[in-house]
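I am hoping you can look over what I have pasted underneath with an eye to the fold:
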Amino acid sequence: MLERIGYIVIGIGVAFEILGCIGLIRLSDVYDRAVAATKCVTMGTCMMLCGVALFGAASGNWSMLVKAVICALFVLLTSPVAAHAVLRGAYLSGVPMAHTGAEDGFAQRAGELRRQHQANGQPAESAGQEQEASHEEA
């Protein structure tokens, strides 16, 4: 019974992976593509690892179950953080958005960070971290 559920969960994970690949091809800009890839691939990978964990539970192979759960937790924790860091760097470096009608609530602050970067000759990421630290102190 657990093996059948494992097959179903792995099939759902493969479907998420395919949707993420389609999103990479079809969406318009780097931000939309990264969101599609991160969400779909994270969910797909975790579903497949949950299916593997179910196979481990069904066969009594507890080390496979534990390894699959640990890997799923690792993917859940690291993938969104990495995508956020990459997209923040893309945004601060000036990669344009495809949707010109969308409201950009961060544009003013990003402009300040870019000006600070040009004035100080430091990377935009470190300028952003200093700006955030000064906002937190105030």
